[in-house]
């Protein structure tokens, strides 16, 4: 990666001898010197899996994205595979929610059933599962509630059980997004104790309390019934704290760390990439997707160019992989 501090302009090698426009003259020249490129294997496709069969519900704030039952999702996953996508991220939407999110760790829960079906049909597709309780709890918070407060330590056991049930169903990677302290360690210990030492953890390490998750909460039906998530997700103003979050997750056993959202947090991606030597994921979240779609639908932005520019910027900032709702479109554009 280029680093501004290594680019020297030596006296005698300045204009008119140096002309940076020489290498921008044709598309072939530009391609030859291009530093960053997006390819299908960089992309992770997120999917909202609804319990049941033959269910397909459009999501108003995310045009082109749907909640769908696994039988219908399978054809989209097959298309993704054919387009070169090698990883998907699953979110489950159960029919029944309760105080303790019991469907999250039920062996026959929506995600567990979906993972089995997908791995059965497309064993090579990397199936990543989101490990959180908010889609499964009646109050919509990511952990257990006592006296109006999200309980950290008491939630860990349920979150670890959730991860274990996903892995038992065949998940290739688990991705805890709940932002409880100690969640990576709790999951690592339980997976190891149960013989799943080989299963990686993709930690949503620096996850901010962001308004850009708005459309997702409509899609996943996971808006908190009271309060907000600021007592566990990060303050958008902080970047040094992001380094501590990542550091903690690395020590606890994370294999991949994530920054989320992506576009308004490119500085965070860049700092995390500089400081840590493990793969960095970035989540191009629902609100970022919705903004581009809305502008494109109004004719205010060229959708294809906007999406490619945003994803290239996220990769240029340091992301090794990008979770994006635009993934299928991008692969279609790349294949001409
Ligand atoms: C679950 C979770 C959320 C997202 C991913 N996992 C929502 C939230 O924290 O409120 C957001 C993804 C998106 O906006 O695309 N905790």
TrEMBL record:
<keyword id="KW-0479">Metal-binding</keyword>
<feature type="binding site">
    <location>
        <position position="229"/>
    </location>
    <ligand>
        <name>5-aminolevulinate 1</name>
    </ligand>
</feature>
<keyword id="KW-0460">Magnesium</keyword>
<feature type="binding site">
    <location>
        <position position="245"/>
    </location>
    <ligand>
        <name>Mg(2+)</name>
    </ligand>
</feature>
<feature type="binding site">
    <location>
        <position position="217"/>
    </location>
    <ligand>
        <name>5-aminolevulinate 1</name>
    </ligand>
</feature>
<feature type="binding site">
    <location>
        <position position="134"/>
    </location>
    <ligand>
        <name>Zn(2+)</name>
    </ligand>
</feature>
<comment type="subunit">
    <text>Homooctamer.</text>
</comment>
<keyword id="KW-0456">Lyase</keyword>
<dbReference type="GO" id="GO:0008270">
    <property type="term" value="F:zinc ion binding"/>
</dbReference>
<feature type="binding site">
    <location>
        <position position="132"/>
    </location>
    <ligand>
        <name>Zn(2+)</name>
    </ligand>
</feature>
<dbReference type="InterPro" id="IPR013785">
    <property type="entry name" value="Aldolase_TIM"/>
</dbReference>
<dbReference type="InterPro" id="IPR030656">
    <property type="entry name" value="ALAD_AS"/>
</dbReference>
<dbReference type="GO" id="GO:0004655">
    <property type="term" value="F:porphobilinogen synthase activity"/>
</dbReference>
<feature type="binding site">
    <location>
        <position position="325"/>
    </location>
    <ligand>
        <name>5-aminolevulinate 2</name>
    </ligand>
</feature>
<comment type="function">
    <text>Catalyzes an early step in the biosynthesis of tetrapyrroles. Binds two molecules of 5-aminolevulinate per subunit, each at a distinct site, and catalyzes their condensation to form porphobilinogen.</text>
</comment>
<dbReference type="Pfam" id="PF00490">
    <property type="entry name" value="ALAD"/>
</dbReference>
<feature type="binding site">
    <location>
        <position position="286"/>
    </location>
    <ligand>
        <name>5-aminolevulinate 2</name>
    </ligand>
</feature>
<dbReference type="InterPro" id="IPR001731">
    <property type="entry name" value="ALAD"/>
</dbReference>
<keyword id="KW-0862">Zinc</keyword>
<comment type="pathway">
    <text>Porphyrin-containing compound metabolism; protoporphyrin-IX biosynthesis; coproporphyrinogen-III from 5-aminolevulinate: step 1/4.</text>
</comment>
<feature type="active site" description="Schiff-base intermediate with substrate">
    <location>
        <position position="260"/>
    </location>
</feature>
<feature type="binding site">
    <location>
        <position position="142"/>
    </location>
    <ligand>
        <name>Zn(2+)</name>
    </ligand>
</feature>
<protein>
    <recommendedName>
        <fullName>Delta-aminolevulinic acid dehydratase</fullName>
        <ecNumber>4.2.1.24</ecNumber>
    </recommendedName>
</protein>
<keyword id="KW-0627">Porphyrin biosynthesis</keyword>
<dbReference type="GO" id="GO:0005829">
    <property type="term" value="C:cytosol"/>
</dbReference>
<keyword id="KW-0350">Heme biosynthesis</keyword>
<dbReference type="GO" id="GO:0006782">
    <property type="term" value="P:protoporphyrinogen IX biosynthetic process"/>
</dbReference>
<feature type="active site" description="Schiff-base intermediate with substrate">
    <location>
        <position position="207"/>
    </location>
</feature>
<comment type="similarity">
    <text>Belongs to the ALAD family.</text>
</comment>
């Amino acid at each position: 990666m280029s680093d501004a501090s290594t680019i020297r302009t030596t006296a005698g090698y300045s204009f008119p001898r140096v002309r940076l426009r020489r290498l921008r003259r044709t598309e072939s020249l530009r391609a030859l010197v291009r530093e960053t490129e997006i390819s299908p294997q960089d992309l992770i496709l997120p999917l909202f899996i609804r319990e049941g069969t033959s269910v397909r519900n459009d999501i108003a704030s995310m045009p082109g994205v749907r909640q769908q039952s696994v039988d219908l999702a399978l054809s989209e996953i097959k298309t993704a595979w054919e387009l070169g996508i090698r990883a998907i991220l699953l979110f489950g939407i159960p029919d029944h929610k309760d105080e303790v999110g019991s469907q999250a760790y039920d062996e026959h829960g929506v995600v567990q059933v979906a993972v089995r079906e997908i791995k059965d049909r497309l064993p090579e597709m990397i199936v990543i599962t989101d490990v959180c309780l908010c889609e499964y709890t009646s109050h919509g918070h990511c952990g257990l509630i006592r006296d109006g407060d999200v309980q950290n330590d008491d939630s860990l056991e349920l979150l670890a059980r959730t991860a274990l049930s996903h892995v038992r169903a065949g998940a290739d990677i688990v991705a805890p997004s709940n932002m409880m302290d100690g969640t990576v360690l709790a999951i690592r210990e339980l997976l190891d104790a149960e013989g799943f030492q080989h299963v990686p953890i993709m930690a949503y390490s620096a996850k901010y309390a962001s308004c850009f998750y708005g459309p997702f909460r409509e899609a996943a039906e996971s808006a908190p019934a009271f309060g907000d998530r600021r007592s566990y997700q990060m303050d958008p103003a902080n970047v040094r704290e992001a380094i501590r979050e990542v550091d903690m997750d690395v020590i606890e056993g994370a294999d991949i760390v994530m920054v989320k959202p992506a576009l308004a947090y490119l500085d965070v991606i860049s700092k995390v990439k500089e400081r840590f030597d493990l793969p960095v994921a970035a989540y191009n979240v629902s609100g970022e997707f919705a903004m581009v779609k809305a502008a494109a639908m109004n004719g205010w932005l060229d959708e294809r160019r906007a999406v490619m520019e945003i994803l290239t910027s996220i990769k240029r900032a340091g992301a090794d992989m990008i979770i994006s709702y635009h993934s299928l479109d991008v692969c279609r554009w790349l294949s001409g």
